[in-house]
Amino acid sequence: MKQSVLVLLSRSVDYAGMFPPAALPLPEAAARYAAMLTGPERFLLGRFVCPAARLGEAEVLRPPVGSPPVVLAVLGAAADSPEALKEQVAADRQRLLSLGSGGSLAADQYEVALPRGVLEGGPAAVAAAARAVTEALALPRRTLVALEVPVAGTPAELVDAAIAGLAQANAVSPATPVCLKVRCGGTTAAGVPTAAELAGAVAAARDHGVLIKATQGLHHPVRHWDSHLSCKVHGFLNLFAAAVLARSHGLDTDGIAEVLEEEDPAAFTFTDSGFAWRHRPASLEALAAARRFGLTSFGSCSVDEPMADLRSLGLVD
Q: Per-residue pLDDT tens for 98-118?
């Protein structure tokens, strides 16, 4: 495996096996995750995504004594108002504290959607809601809070204002950072953001210094036609490349959209010293910086599909 593949994609997949379309029971998803931690997929594998409401059953995830800890991304349920969201997060905090302090099972990411009405209040309302979430969470372990903002079908100015609000929240309380959660797919074509919509979110997050967590629809590396949805769907390689090049080349929204729209796998080249999309190169340092400050990971109910596709492209042995 080329060093650039490892730097760009290491721990990039947060395993969401409990969620559709896989929808595995928790014990089965936990067993699958444990097997992958010792298999060839382990370099891709990040957190285990678990609903907050199911944390009482999370003991099944605890690894054997002497094994590396299992790290969770905990998913809170959607709420209709900032007040309801704050109450829910406070309840989830108690569930998270019930995991204990032994270190073998812990969460370092909490994900929840912002109520739609908050977005319409502009940056100040988003910043206030973000601070309310982090204050209600108040965990002893440093936890990244991923706040979902709908991108598909949302006016670009609302998305930009929401990201600006997340940046304001981080400026006030950097000890509990918040990031943008972006849904890249859906159960219908309407749930899939266009390349322009997703590019706008990537550009705004870069400009405001906000990290991105992606989810849904990124099972395959490169953009392609999905016959079930009857539309083009995004590739995770496109998205990671876009995050890298947006930072290292200062691409505008149109330039980022070009990367997201790429359908030729041969346009992406990897070596031990760097990466390139067509005529735009990026160093290993740029890849590492993009993963740290640009795009942290993406949730997927399958690791097998990304792994098989990377093998077929010759990127993984």
A: 987 667 899 999 999 999 899
